[in-house]
Amino acid sequence: MDLSAFLKAGELAPMTQAPHWRPGVGGARHSEVFAGGREAAGAAAALALALDEAGERLGERSVLWVQDAAALKLGGRPYRPGLPEPLRDRLIHVVAKTPEDFLFALEEGLRCRDFAFVIGELAVNPRALDLTASRRLGLATEKHGVPLVLVRLDARRDLSSARMRWQVRSAASPVPRWNAFAPGPPAWHAELFRARAHAPGEWILRDDGHVLAADRLASPAPDHGDLAVAAGDRSLAAG
Amino acid sequence: MAIWLSRLAIDRWRLAEGCAAGEGADVEPTVLIAETAHGPRIEAANDAGLAAGARPGMRLADARALCPGLKTAPSDPAGDRAFLEALALWAQRWGPWSALDEPDGLLIDVSAVAHLFGGEARLLADAQAAFARRGLTARLAIGPTAGAAWALAHFGPERAILASDDDAAERLASLPVAALRLDDAVLTVLRRLGLKRIGQLGEIGRDALRRRFRNRSSEVNPLLRLDQLLGRVAEPLLPVVAAPDPLVQRRLMEPIRHRPLLDQVLADLAADMARELEGQAQGARRLELGLWRVDGEVIVRRLEFAAATRDPAHIARLFAGKLDDVDAGFGIELLRLRAPWTEPLALAQTDFEAAAEAQGTSLAECVDRLTVRLGEKAVRRPVLHASHLPERAQRWQPPLAPGPASQGQLAFHQRPLKLLDRPEPIAVLYATPDGFPQRFRWRGQVHDIARVEGPERIAPEWWREKSTVRLRDYYRIEDGEGRRYWIYRHGLAGDGRGGAPDWFLQGLFA
Questions:
Q1: Model ipTM value
Q2: Across the interface, do B421 and A181 touch by the CB < 8 Å criterion?
Q3: Chain center to CA of B137
């Protein structure tokens, strides 16, 4: 066994202080967003994160939004007039009857070079989405460079190979400028509970005009860092 | 024109031994033998052997009893047949079309060809001389039908010519019935019947022959053969068609002496060969690469494949391993790649899946793949529709179809990110005096409204709906946990279109 491949203790120490996530840092092609099925916060935050991740890639490309039948029933369909402005005329929506079809559609979308990103919305924990399927999606997104954000409605935090996993719920919106009694621009409470390259933390995300804004909340527990960060953002496809 | 190579096997053996007739190994009595269940049997014998008493069809032991010094050599029927095929192609110099007449003859169509050689007699003399130059014994004849020519070649005089205006029946009447190309068994029957000449067949009448020989197969039916001989019945023949080996070559302006250049030319040749083979739907099993050097030397490298292939990269890679010891000398000026052995190899469709795996699909391809598996209705794109009712303001259409023209939208109303397919009724637990709920129950959970904006009144489309349809008052609300919804009251109290108005939840805001 070649011990030199492992990091020395002295090299490990500086890496445990992983940088905190911030908008625009990028690099996480495969994310999961856990959210409740009673609100649209999951899909909205996923769109915001995906737009943030896609950045320059957006260009003239289309966007694929795949929903499985249960998620469609739970949370409704995308409504074009309510979509974020840049996505309104480039959204392609797919309804998959079964989780298997859902995974197929996601993978086909990830293989297509003409998509800026792919959003998947899946309810609960279907048997088809196991670690193998998740890793398969991860490899596809690594290979073709199309980011994937998977929204999990009312789901347990099961095994997954996603690079960043978020728990998102709606947060009280900031007070709008003109009517103090009206709901303001959307805000979400997002907890990053697992990430390869970042320390976990909690943020209030806001769609601040055209870019994603994030205010980090003070971490309630002492931050031990994430030891898994030693792997860095190594490509999954590279083994 | 019929050509009978009466001593084909012996001539081939003699040519293989490399001696002329009656010289060298041909001086001694020699027979060609085939192994049979009853011991070796003589297939052919040379002149000395015939003189010593050996006859084709004898057992070797019997012949040895007559001539103890008989030499033997194995016969080679497959080689004879291949030789005959090559000869048939070679013989197309006298006519455009030739057929095999197994086991030892050729038939060549010389219709309207003879004048090119100065007449039929000179054509026959030319052919006889050409066969003699090759050391082959040949008997030739020209007749108006294949049967007549065959009969004359085997049983007629040397270089017989039966012109089309001659009376064929009369000229051929004196030939034995064996000239009809019949089976031995039928010949035996005819001999026992006392019918020895072709002319005798004509004397006894067709009806008698037809009653006696009922078989339709021409080899055993003398009447049919006679008709073929005289041209009353057509006789189809199977022609020999040359299939040239796929061959590509490159002449080089400058002789090459270095390996990288050679590899480049070889890759080009392999690509040419692949195109050539693809055009014929063939794959190469064996390839020969000839390298012509400036000083006239030819270096040949051969390659065999386990299965038919025409992959240029594969061919070039395998040849590259065989070119390490090539001495280019003063340079190589011509490369020629030939495929002497090919097998049918159907054109293969390029692998969509692999291409998609390697470089991703285009949008149209991706939409096709999705549509095929999930159905037409599952893959769609939202487009605007001219209506102010929220659920009618959006329609779905195929993803790549051009969107309808639409007016610019009014931007002072906020719309939810997601719309429920069917508005869900909510139970209002406590309403404020202003008319909007303070607390409601939806899907079994109670929501306390913290902030609200509204109402936004949306009237029914009176021009297409019934007069009893109620208007809707929409409210944008946010509950105590920050969840934002779009709810509406269906109708007004006392609008005369039903009872107390119901509340519905229609959309989910971001």
A1: 0.85
A2: no
A3: 41
